[in-house]
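Hey, can you fold this one?
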Amino acid sequence: MIKSEFHNAVKIELDKTSSFELPAFLPEEIDYWLYQSVLRISEEKYNTYLSEVDNPKVQDELKFLLINNASITLDTPVSSDPSIGRGKVYEISFNLTNGLANNFIYDLYIQLNNKLLEDGTLVTSVWQKCEKIKETDSFKYISSYFNTPYFEQPVYYLGGSSETNTTSTSLIIITDYFTSSIGSTIKVSYLKVPTDIATLEDTDEYVDLPSHMHHNIVKLAAFLMLENIESQRVQTNVNLVNNNL
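Sure. Predicted structure:
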């Protein structure tokens, strides 16, 4: 569908679904609820994808949003804090053109230089998968008076943003002390943040989700709009959600 067709379809769906007289929605309001619908459907399909990676139906539904093994050159020079001890901490500012949500990374690889393996072998350069951790758990990987950790697999988290930050953030990578440095390129697989329908012209086609899913987007948008109008309980809940977007 093009944007104007989405708007017309939402109005028809509202008339068909509700027996009450509804207010006239502004185009900006329709855009908002359409995008909320897109985000919910995308995240639901993504969660299904994580548990059913080989499911061809889900792969097809997310084929325009899944970015696999993308090589990204970091915007700023990589540097670490040498005073950390056994855990070397790298804070990297980076920006993905299409946006990135904290909970939508599913694979991250970094290049380790002069990596000392547990058996004592020194590897000049090796790509290794990072394990995602919570920021609140990062202290477990950093030396302190009470903690001298050893870990073979590097870890990472995204800092300085909420889960809904979709433009730029800080990537925090922690490696073991015996790795001298990491490369200036990372390989990341992630779910691209869908395009906001509000940014399209009326004649622009929406291409981030396949056309056979467009009717589901319309139905869910109309449902969310009716919930927001007809239920005070849901109205309160929606306001709380919006305040945290």
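The CA atoms of residues 11 and 24 lie 9 Å apart. Let me know if you want another pass with a different chain boundary.
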